[in-house]
Task: inverse folding
């Protein structure tokens, strides 16, 4: 009898088995982390310069956050929000509403940013239907932009590279140009460009019909899709006035920029005369220790809807007690350590170091950002702002050079590289001056290594 021996079945694998085979980024197998440092299975150490996708705002394995998780898990692990309330939900909602100030008295929790943005869209639509404005269903966003990874949130993102995927499959948003002052495409100067961007928003509202437009959704500071672009006060005031004039809800996506990332707890505090109607928060709120997101809304809207149809759409992990306990510990750490103030100091030091690096590296075309949230745009020629070819996969290449120098930066291609290539530097709010200097040193070595490769390949002179 002959026994056939088949090859072992290839099963399992880590999450990157789903990623594009063409991706050239080497992903280390991380086995432990502490503070700003991570170690792989071979014992190699890395500085996490961005907290993953701007998530770990207090570093990794923070002892007091871990303790808060353990205490809560030993007391109450889960309570579904449609059938029970829990004290941590009550306490966290009050703390966040207090930080946000008037106009944000109600808070609905989710298990992440995409869910929180989805909740904001659902809430806005249901409120419109319940208040006799059912014709309002159109969403306007900036191009480029990113608002999440669900079908609905990816469909409203202003990234045209996904148009084939969404065509006939999801309801896409109406996009208007985003302010991109490094390459002002709509005017001779950054100021003219921003003014025209605001005009395009109003023109699109009028084109669609104000009675049909539900909301304008924007990141107050550009996320990964725009590389930390900071709009001017004039642009933000214009956006607020346009939305108010046409009865359009202004929704701020603070998934990246909230929890102190830009200096104040909410980025919206930079523009006090351009406050939004709804705010979405996530990422740093759980500091990487627990998944949590939040929608902040005015009591007037929530209470009016509660008196009408109610808003009872729920996800299984809404207001999870453990996640809420972690978020409360994050707020405690930020307050006790005066980390908003400390982050502003570190941010100023980091900015100075990045701008000095820009002077030394021919690859750095632009440095932009605010607080502890910065982007470094890499170019083929600094004088002309010429981009590196997209097929050279510059963001992935620089990520690999950074990993070889023990540095983790957040970088991925967006919009097919149409708007440029950048890496994000966003250390935790409690990073030290020495850690920021080490990030700058390793980034400079990484850029120098990449520059040598580009010269050898003839892609730069």
Result:
């Amino acid at each position: 009898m002959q026994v056939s021996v088949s090859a072992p079945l290839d099963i399992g694998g880590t999450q990157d088995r789903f990623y594009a085979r063409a991706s050239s980024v080497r992903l280390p197998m991380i086995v432990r982390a502490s503070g700003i440092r991570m170690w792989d299975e071979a014992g190699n150490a890395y500085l996490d310069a961005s907290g993953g996708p701007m998530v770990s705002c207090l570093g990794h394995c923070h002892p007091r956050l871990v303790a808060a998780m353990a205490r809560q898990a030993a007391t109450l692990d889960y309570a579904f929000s449609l059938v029970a309330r829990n004290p941590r939900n009550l306490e966290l909602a009050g703390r966040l509403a207090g930080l946000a100030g008037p106009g944000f008295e109600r808070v609905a929790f989710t298990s992440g940013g995409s869910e929180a943005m989805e909740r904001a869209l659902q809430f806005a639509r249901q409120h419109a239907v319940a208040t006799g404005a059912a014709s309002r269903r159109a969403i306007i966003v900036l191009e480029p932009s990113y608002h999440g990874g669900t079908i609905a949130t990816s469909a409203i993102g202003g990234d045209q590279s996904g148009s084939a995927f969404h065509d006939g499959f999801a309801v896409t948003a109406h996009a208007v140009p985003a302010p991109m002052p490094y390459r002002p495409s709509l005017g001779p100067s950054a100021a003219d460009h921003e003014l025209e961007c605001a005009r395009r928003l109003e023109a699109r509202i009028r084109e669609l019909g104000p009675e049909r437009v539900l909301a304008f959704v924007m990141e107050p500071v550009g996320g990964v899709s725009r590389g930390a672009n900071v709009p001017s006060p004039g642009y933000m005031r214009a956006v607020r006035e346009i939305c108010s004039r046409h009865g359009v809800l202004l929704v701020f996506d603070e998934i990246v920029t909230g929890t102190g990332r830009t200096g104040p707890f909410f980025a919206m505090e930079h523009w006090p005369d351009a406050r939004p109607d709804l705010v979405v928060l996530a990422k740093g709120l759980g500091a990487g220790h627990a998944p949590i997101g939040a929608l902040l809304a005015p009591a007037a809207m929530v209470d009016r809807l509660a008196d009408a149809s109610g808003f009872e759409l729920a996800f299984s992990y809404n207001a999870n007690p453990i996640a809420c306990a972690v978020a409360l510990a994050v707020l405690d750490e930020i307050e006790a350590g005066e980390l908003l103030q400390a982050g502003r100091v570190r941010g100023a030091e980091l900015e100075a170091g990045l701008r000095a690096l820009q002077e030394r590296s021919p690859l750095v075309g632009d440095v932009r950002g605010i607080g502890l949230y910065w982007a470094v745009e890499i170019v083929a020629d600094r004088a002309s702002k010429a981009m590196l070819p997209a097929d050279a996969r510059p963001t992935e290449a620089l990520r690999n050079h950074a990993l070889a120098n023990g540095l983790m930066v957040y970088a991925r291609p967006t919009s097919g590289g149409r708007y440029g290539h950048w890496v994000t530097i966003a250390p935790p709010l409690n990073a030290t001056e020495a850690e920021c200097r080490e990030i700058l040193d390793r980034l400079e070595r990484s850029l120098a290594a990449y520059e040598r490769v580009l010269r050898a390949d003839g892609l730069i002179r």
User: Anything to note?
Assistant: The first strand starts at residue 30 and ends at 34. The longest helix spans residues 433-456.
